[in-house]
Amino acid sequence: MKKVMVLFVALLAVSLSAGFANAEGNSTKGKYLYRNIYKDCSARGEIPSSTPIVSPSDKTQSQWERTFEKKKFDVFGCTTEFNNLTEANLENIYTYLHGHAADSPTPAKCK
Amino acid sequence: MKKMRVNFKFCLWLVLAAVFVLGLSNESSANEAPVAPGIALAKQAKPEEKGSTVDHSKLKQLDKNFKSGDEITKACLECHTEADHQFKKTYHWTWKDPKSEGGKGADSVNNFCISANNMEDPLCIKCHPGWNGKKGEVNCLSCHGQEKFDFAEAFKDIQDVSAVGDKESIEIVKGIQDDVKKAAQDVGAVRRRNCGDCHFKGGGGDGVKHGDLDTSLLKPSRELDVHMGIDGENFDCTRCHTTTSHNIAGRFYGTPAEGRHKSLMDDDQISRISCESCHSATPHKPGVKANDHTDKVACQSCHIPTFARELPTKMYWDWSASGKLKDGKYYSEDGPYGKHTYDTKKGDFVWGKDVVPEYYWYNGTMTDTTVNDIIDPSKPVKLRWPIGTPNAKDSRIFPFKVHVGKQPYDLKGKNFLAPLVSGPKDYWKTLDWEDAFTRGMATLGKTWSGEYGFVDTKYAFPTTHMVVPGENALSCTECHTPANGRLANIEGVYIPGRDRLGYLGYLGWFIILASLAGVLIHAAIRIASSKRRD
Q1: Cβ contact (<8 Å) for B168 and A32?
Q2: A32–B172: do the CB atoms touch at under 8 Å?
Q3: Using CB atoms within 10 A of its CB, is residue A65 exposed (0-12), middle (13-18) or buried (19+)?
């Protein structure tokens, strides 16, 4: 019984940690949600520019996985907006950033 | 006797004083000499004040949620009724030289990405000013859009996000449509960026193709370009590339930019494309020797000492080295200037910065090489080369960037091959030359033998931008020097200091020495006779 419990907990941990790695959000929707965060954020006066300060190609796919798994959103500079996102929209943004990471087949070219 | 000496000294001083005063007067009159008409005319140029009589954001034709580029153009054409007919006849649309029918829209080859494959190469076609190649409407905004906006991405995103259908997505779609509308309304006269998006990045990247055109010209200093310098005249491209019915003045293949060597003083209907248009054939002060050069030497030869002065330009591209993998993967290597010197997809590169041009006789037209031409692969093939001869009235000595390449040709047919390289099934994805040749040649209605090799090629570009201020132009000795001068390879013209005319040279020296001897002998006789008189 103890072994089964350990196995169950381990499986749960793996499935949770692989949550973003296997995410299949809407990349296009994620792109605009991501851009809109910066528009709102700059309108609030937190950042000077209304365009994203972090490009998808600033990180590799595994770095984006870790960022979203640990929810370390301070890198984006607009934590208030990020903390207000639903899980589904976080997944959309993750799909966009991951899909255009530096080591992806289609890295974002413009920074 | 003493009185005579005093008188003699007095006369001598008087003569010296007169010479000094005359000299000063000459100098001052030289300073006040009338400025050359060519300078006076050009000095009138001032930065353009571009005003518009239309606020496009107030037009109902542009107040729509556009779903495609063609829709935007149709809205433009409601007012600008003839614009598309005009534009579709120009080289910018056809990519074909009206005289030779050659060009990248036809079957010409170069030693960069080799061929536009009848406009089927996806990377090349990005610079065609249509929404969908030559099939659809003209994309007016590629030249008249005031800010860069990716319409193709926006239209695709509208479709993608609309398909989601939730409330949030509807809001996003509305936002994209507003951005599209705003970009469609933000139109005006052509800016540097509009031209530069393609002309600064020809050949696949910044400064790759032209040595005298790169993004450093977006905001250059006067030292980099005396005409475009933001601290100088601050000209936009269209200040010289004047436009009539959407025909933009400039050179292409067999058609010179301006072959008549006229100035606006001769004919006020000409374009401003050549130096002579504004500066005339006597651009220097009266009496300055440089004015005597303009019938043989192009202004650019002295006033563009080097090209690629701020950003590097590609000087060599070897396609035969492409296709190597590292650990089974594509790779690239960086070299000087932070540029790739190797790329699996493309091969070996050499970049240059602050490059001294090569000089050739040039009448404003270039040769063209196509996939139909039979070549001699035993020596470098001149793909595009200046046409001109020393004695022709319209030829001048002109500076060029020469890009050297190594590119594929048909071993049996002895003609160039035109592979498809940039599409999803093309060479950069497959590294399969044979498939790329077969499909690439098919775009031009051609086949190939099945055997290929690589041949050395040269491609010349006239250097005409990055003009330095007069004070930084070349000094005489750069060309008028006995060895290794800039014009060492130029034939058919006598260049003092570089050339000698055998016995005529010796005769000249004899006359100089004989004159000197005559003066000395004369002086000796005068001294001797004066002593005898004393």
Answers
A1: no
A2: yes
A3: buried
For B422-435, write each residue's pLDDT tens digit: 999 999 999 999 99
Which region among A52-61, B49-58, B141-150, B283-292 has the lowest average model confidence (pLDDT)?
B49-58
Return the exposure string of B424-462: e unless at least 16 CB atoms fall within 10 Å of the residue's CB, then b.
eebbbeeeebeebbbbbbbbbebebeeebebbbbbbbbb
- Residue B531: burial class (beta carbons within 10 Å; 0-12, 13-18, 19+): exposed
In chain B, positions 176-195, which contact chain A (CB-CB < 8 Å)? 176
pTM reported for the whole predicted model: 0.83
**A50 contacts in B (CB within 8 Å)?**
none
Token look-up 């000492």 returns: B305
Distance of CA A29 to the CA centre of its chain: 13
d(CA B465, CA B300): 8
Question: Residue B43: what pLDDT?
Answer: 73
Between chains, do A89 and B175 touch, taking CB under 8 Å as contact? no
A32·B161 Cβ contact <8 A = yes
Q: What percent of chain B has pLDDT over 70?
A: 91
State the alpha helices, DSSP H only, in B262-365: 275-279, 299-303
Q: Which residue of B has its CA nearest to A34?
A: B172
Whether the per-residue pLDDT at B315 is higher than 50: the answer is: yes
Residue B95 is classified by DSSP as -
Instruction: Tally Cβ neighbours within 10 Å of residue A90.
Output: 20
Question: What is the C-alpha to C-alpha distance for residues B31 and B24, in angstroms, rounded to an integer?
Answer: 11
Single out the residue of B287, B291, B310, B311 nearest to residue B302, CA to CA. B291
Out of B157, B168, B175, the one facing A28 most closely (by C-beta) is: B157
> pLDDT tier at B204 (50, 70, 90 boundaries)?
confident
Confidence (pLDDT) at B15: 55
The alpha carbon dihedral of B107, B206, B127, B86 has a sign of negative
Is the CB of residue B460 less than 8 Å from the CB of residue B478?
no
Other Cβ atoms less than 10 A from the Cβ of A45: the count is 7
Do the chains contact at A28 and B176, CB–CB below 8 Å? no
The nearest CA of chain A is from the CA of B175 a distance in Å of 9
What type of residue sits at position B292? D
Cα distance from B172 to chain A (closest Cα, Å)?
A: 7
Parse chain B into domains and list their residue ranges.
57-275, 302-478, 503-529
pLDDT at residue A100, as a whole number: 93
pLDDT band for position B261 (50/70/90)? confident
A31–B157 CB contact, under 8 Å: yes
Q: How far apart are CA B433 and CA A51, in angstroms?
A: 41
Tokens 């580029």, residue? Answer: B69
Residue A6 CA from chain centroid, whole number: 30
Strands B247-248 and B243-244: what pairing?
antiparallel
Task: Name every residue in A having a CB less than 8 A away from some CB of B.
Answer: 26, 28-29, 31-33, 36, 89
